[in-house]
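Quick start: read one record
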Amino acid sequence: MKVVEIQTYGAPEVLTPGERPVPVAGVGEALIRVTASGVNRPDVLQRTGNYPVPPGASDIPGLEVAGVIVDGDAGALAHAGFAIGDRVCALVAGGGYAEFCVAPLGQCLPVPEGLSDAQAASLPETFFTVWSNVFDRARLQPGETLLIQGGSSGIGVTAIQIAKALGSRVIVTAGSDDKCAACLALGADDAINYRNTDFVAEVKRLTGGAGVNVVLDMVAGAYVARELECLAEDGR
């Protein structure tokens, strides 16, 4: 199969076409014929020599793919509700810049109706990250309020849409009025330009002093102490 390799570190021009054996799907895995791959920061860092490949992972870059299932663990496919020929997108530990890629079935999603493969390939990294953090760990519930730091980021725009779809109130921060407007257009209830507004005071005002139930933070550092001031009782 054709792949894109990193043979030396540097600018995008170091990405080189190559050939590798087609991978074989193991237990609990699907073999996907790849039609589109996502581009993530770790791919860029790997290309520049600043992201060592994790042990056991493919040295071929690419953490997100979309395409068609062409083979796999038959029992696991059926149990997961997939079949040969299904369009899927998936989160993988490398190997996405290739004609074929193996993915764990637990990290595969059906391509949403109406989306192209190129669009679907941009979904898994942010959707799995938001689901794991906001819903599995922080247990955001319908009717609760979520504060998203960096609402216009990839994680931010995903969190806005999922939280609103599942019935939560969403407050975001962003670094410009245009970014705030974009977050509101995606469904956020309130958007705070942190460059000209104290987000702690504004969160307290917007919630009538109650605070928010969950904070999704992609900044950390000095922000953590201020975010604790934004939390409601039993906030996460």
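The first helix runs from residue 41 to 47.
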